[in-house]
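Letters spell out the chain; backbone shape is given numerically. Take this protein:
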Amino acid sequence: MTSAWTNEAAIQQWDSGSTRESMEATAVSGDFSKEHLVNPVLLRLLGDVRGRRVLDAGCGNGYFSRMLAERGAQVTGVEPAASLVSFAREKSAADISYLQADLAHLPELEPFDAVVCSMVLMAIPDWKPAMRACVEALRPGGLFVFAIVHPAFEELFGTWREHGEYRRKEYLAEYEIVGRGASDFHRPISAYLNEVAALGCRVREVVEPGLDPAHGIEAYARMPNFLIVAAETGCPIGQ
């Protein structure tokens, strides 16, 4: 990352930008995109979670942790931003425990059957240690599922609204994308998939979900704004 951003700065931005109003508005199923595009795919890829230990890595306000707990999972949510983890604990169900920690510096935990990291990695300046921590938290043969803004179609809605099509001038470089609440960081798709492979995982499925045209948002019906990857642990890291 070539900018002055650090994980600590990004966490502070998320912490200060997460208002009570915004957290309440997304407390049940996240925002529109998560409800209609991301969550259904994550739940399908995770499969039957009853009785399984699941780590929600970067759980935000805890809405997905609560969805998993409702489906019978034993959930641990990890979130570094104080305002978000406080809200998550307030809304907590009995089968959820929350830890305030940077994903890149997780405490030692019992191995999980699955780790889900939804809409987090593209928001972390130093993202590779966070991905490594997610994989290391899994038991052998465990499932790692992550969702990110699709690197080829970032800022899709805004450019489509302005031009009637999607436009992008740069793809191969790594750079910061300044957002209203917090920044994301662009990296090519290959950066994420190559890191998954380097960590000894086998990719099971890659999903680029499209929106049902009935919702009337042409950009999301024609092009994928999200990339979702399911991988399983295989050989030990470093071998």
User: Anything to note?
Assistant: The two ends are 27 Å apart (CA to CA). The domain at 7-232 is CATH 3.40.50.150 (Rossmann fold). The first strand starts at residue 53 and ends at 57. The longest helix spans residues 32-46.
